[in-house]
Amino acid sequence: MWKNLVAIFTLTVGACAELPEQEASISETYFKPGATVDFTFKSNGLTLSGIFDTPAENVTEALIIFVHGYGGTDIRARNSYADLRQRFNEIGIATVVWDKPGQGRSEGTFDINQSVFSSAKEVLDAANFLRETSAPGSDRIGIWGISRAGWIAPIALSQDKDIDFWVSVSGTTAEDNFSYLLLSNLPYEGGTIEQAEQFAGEWRKGCEIFRTGGSFTAYQDATQNLRANEYIKKMRGSWPNSMQYRNDQQNCTAGACANVDSDMCSYVFIENFETMLSSLNVDTLAIFGEKDLNVDWRKTHKLYQSTIGKNPDASLRIVSFKDSDHNLHVSDTGSLKEMNAMTAPKKSSGYYDVQINWLTETVLGNRSSE
After folding, report:
1. Where are the domains of the chain?
2. Using one digit for the tens of pLDDT, what is the confidence trace for 297-308?
3. Distance in angstroms (rounded) separating the CA atoms of residues 168 and 145
4. Which of 51, 107, 223, 300 has the fewest other C-beta atoms within 10 Å?
5. What is the helix (H) or strand (E) element at residue 321, kind and residue range?
6. Phi first, then psi: what are they for 281, rounded to 5°?
7. What confidence tens digit (pLDDT) does each residue in 17-52 have?
8. pTM (2 decimals)?
């Protein structure tokens, strides 16, 4: 077994070098304290490439898997999560992160709309692989994930009961956040708060008409201001014509709306999401930015409280930062426009301390008492 595993590791110390085949433990021989290891593993029929950081001290207490948010990746060129990887290593926690399919050195074709279940399979396969290789800290694995990872992490946690803890940053509810993002950013894109409230009402009314079998004309009349707004059209794309509307409505009646919520007709990524979250017997730290205009952090906050927070076999700590946007950067507005214009983003004061203190007390503290 070890001969097959050794062949897919390379050690990054200065220049990368191929590892010789031998029977010695990979963990003892190649996961050198303070070193970064390039590694590959198989998932969904593809070879995915990542990096593994081992703490400089000889004893590694745990391992954190980073799960990306939306969009492309290039972990080596961007030195992704370097700020957190270094800080976690300093307290004795190893870290691992890999590129999405078709990105960086990972095989495949990049799909920006990759299924969250496919992404969760990557997490599960990586966790199993790291346990098989006895990677440092792999007997106590946790997940750190941002945004889209709010769907991916619970899927993985629900299927692998040996993943012990979760740091959720800017987490999600069950449904897509697109309508929230559009309407929350409207006042910073030439609109007003009053318009955003009006459009939200039209969006809900249109959804109600669509789901209850209402006519295309009634739908058009109820959403005319929403559909006419240039910013909404630019971001959303075209609205359905009469034929598309009828086809969508027929599909909905036939069962397609099982994956669409009844409020804003948003796509539901995970059915019975509340039940899934309630079943997670893990220690969870949830971090939010109170100026987040990408996801409805208040709604997710309440969701976590009513699910994980009610589970006697789990623990939940929620921390929100008043001056933070979706990426937990200090922000005046939290808007997409401001986020995209940032040239030297700065994390909110306490962002790192909250995580280090929680990991030290909850994860490493529990470990020392076992």
Report:
1. 2-174+270-368, 178-259
2. 999 999 999 999
3. 5
4. 107
5. strand 315-321
6. -90, 60
7. 333 333 334 555 578 899 998 989 999 999 999 999
8. 0.90
